[in-house]
Design brief:
Structural class: alpha+beta
Mean pLDDT: 77
Radius of gyration: 37 Å
Strand content: 15-25%
Distance between the termini: 135 Å
């Protein structure tokens, strides 16, 4: 009898030690892992929040205004504040006065939070995690505006399910210990059989559709039904919690991707009216679509020839002025810099939403770019002393828009065609060359002429006309266009002597005309070859 009780006491001791290790392991490892995951999530939310505030303040003119700063922070924080789980607190770094949420201007941040953050700052750290008694969060010191952003989770909310699980396990543990202490050997053997039965039924994972009570209570009696019912309830609640958690994680990942796309659009400086129309439900459709756009390729011709004689700082600074001008000019008329390579730029108009004025906006952008070049050549901005000359190629048609990597881009044949038109502009020596006669006629205000019939590189359409749009107009342009068109017609009909006469008249009217020079040389060569 004594040996049996001694065996029972030893078994109870081992069981107590085993369950104690389980509880402490669960508490220590699960808690640390949960804290680390929460801090990582909060830090990512904070980075997106700061990026959104920074981008919106960058495009606001009076960005130093306290009201503008407060409204911008409120707009961004309301979007990221998940309410039931993640909370946002913004306050003045010096006074502790709360900026968001702004229920009352007299409210100040808790002294405990302010003291902990100041300890970080005193060590030279302007961001870091805070593990407080009631909050777990991450702070960012926003130096430009002397503000501090504190994104946090209340510890009671974070550890709610962990505590419930520990309490339940502890309760089960106490019940097991009491049972072992008060039952006889026969009851102990029965309980061991029950445990083996449970282990056998739950082998391969606890989240099974079959309930444990079924078939077990028939063998071991209804007294175990309460215990098994509680365990079944625990399993059901755990499965429900995991399912909700999985749904929240998927939603957060989707929000992260959509926010990434929005930030990329901000960096492109898309017009405000387009960005304000975007939301989480339509950002993917708008950023990734097929639509008609106007593609404009610009290049500073002959730029590389004197580059070896100039200081690198002069080169990069002057190109920086040009890049800033094109970025501002295009974004204010529904366009953006699609990509650039130093002295070459590709601008696209009509993004992210379709714009029927994309082609006229591109023409106006071309005029603005040439005016900028002319102003630069004759002013103090010309630090290198070298005059720039710009050629432009323009095309209109369907393109694919979307986010690729960390960039918002437009790709497709319309972009390739604009670069081909740029090559034609350089060959014929004109400011702007295009293949889009339909859009020119639809616009109705531009004066243009057919330059030549050129190869397209396609078997189905071997040749097509290329056109010049006159960006600088005077009273001689109309007559010159008529004479050039007639000369071009005579050339293709083989009447080279008449064409020769027309092209000479064009040169006399315009003073210099590179396309006429090209056809004068062709006419002369063909006349001499036929004689």
């Amino acid at each position: 009898m004594k040996a049996t009780r001694k065996l029972i006491i030893n078994t109870v001791s081992v069981t107590i030690l085993f369950f104690t290790l389980i509880v402490f392991s669960l508490y220590f490892f699960y808690t640390q892992d949960l804290k680390n995951r929460e801090i990582d999530l909060i830090r990512e939310v904070g980075k997106f929040l700061l990026s959104t505030v920074e981008e919106r303040l960058t495009i606001v003119k009076d960005k130093g205004s306290e009201e503008i700063i407060r409204d911008t922070i409120a707009y961004a924080a309301d979007y990221y504040d998940l309410g039931e789980h993640i909370h946002i607190l913004v306050f003045h770094s010096d006074t502790g006065a709360i900026v968001y949420p702004f229920y009352s201007t007299a409210r100040k941040v808790d002294t405990g939070i302010l003291t902990n953050i100041n300890q970080y700052i005193a060590r030279g750290t302007f961001e870091g995690g805070l593990y407080l008694k009631e909050q777990l969060g991450y702070f960012f010191r926003y130096k430009n505006e002397r503000l501090t952003f504190f994104i946090y989770t209340r510890t009671g909310e974070l550890f709610k399910y962990r505590n419930q699980l520990i309490y339940l396990i502890a309760g089960l543990f106490v019940m097991c210990v009491l049972s072992l202490l008060i039952v006889e050997n026969g009851m102990l053997r029965t309980f061991r059989h029950l445990i083996r039965e449970l282990m056998r039924r739950f082998e391969g994972g606890p989240l099974r559709k079959q309930k444990v009570v079924e078939g077990v209570t028939d063998r071991y009696g209804p007294e175990v039904e309460g215990l098994l019912g509680g365990y079944n309830k625990l399993i059901t609640n755990s499965a429900s919690f995991l399912k909700r958690l999985e749904g929240k994680l998927k939603k957060c990942l989707k929000q992260r991707e959509n926010l990434k796309k929005l930030i990329i659009l901000y960096r492109k400086h898309i017009a405000n009216k387009e960005l304000l129309s975007l939301n989480e439900s339509n950002v993917s459709n708008i950023t990734s679509r097929r639509q008609d756009v106007a593609s404009m390729s610009l290049e500073l011709v002959g730029f590389l020839e004197p580059i070896g004689e100039l200081y690198p700082q002069v080169i990069t600074e002057e190109l920086g002025y040009l890049h800033s001008f094109l970025k501002k000019e295009s974004s204010s008329h529904g366009g953006m810099i699609n990509f650039s390579n130093g002295y070459f730029f590709n601008l696209v108009y009509g993004v992210p939403s379709y714009d029927e004025m994309a082609f006229p906006s591109a023409i106006n952008g071309s005029k603005a770019a040439l005016d900028f070049i002319e102003s630069r050549n004759s002013s103090g901005q010309n630090r290198s002393g070298i005059k720039w000359e710009m050629k432009i190629g323009l095309s209109y048609g369907p393109g694919v828009t979307g986010t690729v990597g960390d960039s918002y881009v437009v790709i497709g044949e319309v972009v390739d065609k604009s670069m081909k038109m740029l090559e034609h502009a350089k060959f014929y020596g004109v400011a702007l060359a295009t293949d889009s006669e339909t859009e020119i006629k639809k616009y109705g205000k531009a004066k243009y002429r057919r330059l030549d019939l050129v190869s397209t590189g396609h078997d189905t359409l071997p040749e097509a006309y290329v056109y010049e749009i006159f960006l600088q107009d005077d009273n001689r342009t109309d007559n010159a266009i008529k004479l050039y068109s007639h000369g071009l017609e005579m050339f293709f009909e083989g009447k080279y002597d008449v064409a020769l006469y027309d092209f000479k008249k064009v040169k006399k009217l315009l003073g210099e005309d590179n396309p006429s020079d090209i056809f004068l040389e062709r006419c002369d060569r063909l006349i001499r070859g036929s004689s």
